[in-house]
Write a structure and sequence with these properties.
The complex is a heterodimer of chains A (313) and B (277). Chain A has 313 residues and is of the alpha/beta class. Helix content of chain A is 34%, strand content 27%. Chain A has 2 domains: 9-223, 3-Layer(aba) Sandwich (Rossmann fold), CATH 3.40.50; 234-296, Alpha-Beta Plaits, CATH 3.30.70. Chain A has helices spanning 49-56, 78-82, 100-110, 115-128, 144-155, 174-189, 201-207, 225-232, 246-251, 275-284, 299-307; strands spanning 9-20, 23-34, 38-42, 64-69, 85-88, 162-166, 193-198, 210-215, 218-223, 236-241, 260-263, 268-272, 291-296. Helices cover 70% and strands 2% of the residues of chain B. In chain B, strands 1-2 form a two-stranded antiparallel sheet. The longest helix of chain B has 31 residues, at 81-111. The relative contact order of chain B is 0.14. Classes of the chains: A alpha/beta (313), B mainly alpha (277).
Chain lengths: 313, 277
């Protein structure tokens, strides 16, 4: 077995590349994830996050590069690796022909787990997903949020050591997101390694110990959320709205305020260490925005800085 | 979970046996899933699949048979037209069922229902899925064959106990088509390409000596028809239905055994292309 030099890494990717014909979905990326870490891939749609997830799960073959999961190549040892993996794909792929509880039982059978283990486990997970009263319902009668929760419950049926979550909270309402984050936090506390892709920066900030910012199949930056913000942005951001016609023209008059200026179609961002002071300078120049807002820098700003584009187009 | 995981918990047991990346010896999980799903939703599809050959038998055998009268069976004795075409229709239905299950059904579950996508993120390997799905197709084929044989019996078209062997023989035919069909589906990317399958199947159904003997064709066409799998199925079941066994019987059976073998090799080598993109 090709064993990693550092045994503490449960996932090691080196020069990982995936091409579909002429299109390069993942372009030469490298990262290592130690056991128990919560690791994020942050980037817009089409950045190559899902493809990376599929390669980790061994259901997509890499074009070149090395990848080991718990010291094993997922292409050569797919079934053994996946026995310890939980997967929440971007699109729910629940078994629509089966009832809610049966979805959990049947999925557990795919892992070769005995019914004596699965029955109580399924009930426990239904409770966790707040779907106990839906146990006998058909899957297609569930709401979008319920389906998502069931998919997440299903991914835990084999008590995975590594949980892959591809855009876990897309389509969930704020309350459901917070419940889910809480559950993921508990899993993390119990030592489960979380690998998560998201294009929500608040999610990445909440859940990830460390993340990579990906764009067009490449890693643009790597670090903890706070490090990334410190390295690639200022402490505060002043957001000004002058109305959609004036935002770009007014930007010229704002030159010199703050450390950096970012005119966007719907607003102007001023990166500065002191937002209130910057706002005073703006009004001193006789400019009166329709709305103004001072906030902390976020990963969104990091992404904008690194790629020149927003995360959500 | 008892206490937080430590690095020791991340050690994975490795199974060093051939095909371990493709096969986890758990096809029964796929089979029990299929049975469970059938129980809850697929009834109408199941029932319609049974009636199709029966309706053909009634319209052609009884209706057209009244015009045709008696014809000569495999060993030269006179039999009714319905008794002549019934085994052929059984072979056709074994082919259709197996091809439908291994092509359209697999194509749909893979590209639209995303069923296999979910399965393949578990400990299952692609070969577990393929074996499970083929087994389900054969089980369904066996049920249809049993039902159709019963209908033949009720219509007085069965004259020998040998005819019961048509049931396992139908499963053999279905196996040949199913193992090949899945391999072929691995090459298909669009609905248009899937339509080619029908383009092959329909003429094969009409011209494989299903409704009239091979002798009506000029010799080169006879050779061509005899190279096609359905003709062997039709002849095999036709012989069994009246309990006539010749050297040709063995050839028909060997034809299918080879087809199964080649089909399984094709499907297995294409499994990564089929399931792991």
């Amino acid at each position: 077995m090709p064993n990693q030099t550092n045994d503490n890494y449960v996932i090691s990717a080196h020069n990982l590349t995936k091409k579909y014909g002429d299109f390069t979905a993942v372009n030469d990326i490298s990262f290592d994830v130690p056991a128990g870490e919560s690791f994020g891939l942050l980037g817009p749609n089409g950045a190559g996050k899902s493809t990376t997830m599929k390669m980790i799960g061994g259901v997509s073959q890499r074009t070149s590069g090395d990848l080991t999961i718990m010291g094993l190549d997922p292409e050569e040892h797919g079934p053994e690796v996946r026995a310890h993996l939980g997967v929440v794909p971007q699109q729910d792929n629940l078994d629509e022909e089966l009832k809610v509880r049966d979805n959990l039982l049947v999925y557990g059978r795919y892992f070769g787990l005995p019914m004596s283990y699965l029955k109580p486990k399924a009930d426990e997970l239904l409770e966790f997903a707040q779907l106990t009263d839906k146990a006998k319902s058909k899957v297609d009668s569930l709401s979008g949020g319920m389906k998502r929760r069931l998919t997440i419950a299903r991914s835990l049926i084999n008590e995975p050591k590594i949980l892959l979550l591809d855009e876990p909270t897309t389509g969930l309402d704020p309350q459901a997101r917070h419940i889910l984050w809480d559950r993921l936090f508990r899993l993390k506390e119990s030592g489960v390694t979380l690998i998560l892709t998201t294009h929500y920066m608040d999610e990445a900030e909440q859940l990830c110990d460390r993340l990579v910012v990906v764009d067009k199949g490449q890693i643009m930056a790597e670090g903890s959320p706070s490090t990334l913000i410190r390295e690639h942005s200022t402490r505060e951001v002043l957001e000004l709205r002058f109305g959609s016609e004036r935002n770009t023209t007014v930007a010229a008059d704002l030159q010199g305020i703050g450390e950096r200026l970012e005119p966007l179609p719907d607003r102007v961002l001023i990166y500065t260490h002191d937002g209130e002071a910057a706002l005073e300078q703006v009004t001193a120049r006789g400019l009166h925005p329709i709305t103004s807002l001072v906030r902390r820098s976020s990963l969104e700003d990091v992404f904008l800085r690194l790629t020149g584009r927003s995360l959500i187009d | 979970m008892s206490g937080p995981l430590t690095i020791e918990d991340y050690q994975v047991e490795v199974q060093d046996r051939p095909f371990s990346a493709l096969y986890a010896r758990n096809a029964r999980a796929v089979i029990s899933r299929g049975l469970m799903a059938t129980k809850s939703s697929n009834w109408m599809v199941m029932v319609s699949g049974f009636f199709e050959p029966v309706l053909y038998l009634i319209s052609m055998g009884v209706g057209l048979g009244a015009l045709v009268g008696n014809v000569f069976g495999p060993n030269g004795q006179e039999i009714s037209y319905a008794a002549y075409i019934a085994p052929a229709l059984l072979a056709v239905s074994a082919m259709n069922g197996a091809v439908y299950d291994s092509t359209w059904n697999v194509f749909f579950k893979m590209n639209f229902a995303k069923l296999y996508q979910g399965m393949l993120y578990t400990s299952l390997g692609p070969l577990d899925v393929a074996i499970g799905e083929i087994f389900l197709a054969l089980l369904r084929g066996a049920m249809y064959a049993t039902g159709f044989t019963a209908v033949m019996g009720m219509m007085g078209l069965i004259t020998t106990p040998w005819a019961l062997l048509m049931i396992p023989a139908s499963v053999l035919i279905a196996f040949g088509f199913a193992s090949f069909g899945m391999g072929i589906t691995s090459f298909m990317k669009t609905f248009q390409q899937m339509d080619w399958i029908n383009f092959v199947m329909l003429p094969m159904f009409l011209f494989s000596a299903t409704f009239y003997p091979l002798s009506v064709y000029p010799e080169p066409i006879q050779w061509f028809i005899q190279a096609l799998p359905l003709w062997h199925g039709v002849e095999l079941l036709r012989q069994i239905s009246i309990g006539v066994f010749t050297a040709a019987t063995a050839i028909h059976i060997v034809y299918y055994l080879v087809m199964i073998l080649v089909g399984m090799v094709l499907t297995t080598t294409r499994l990564r292309k089929l399931f792991l993109k």
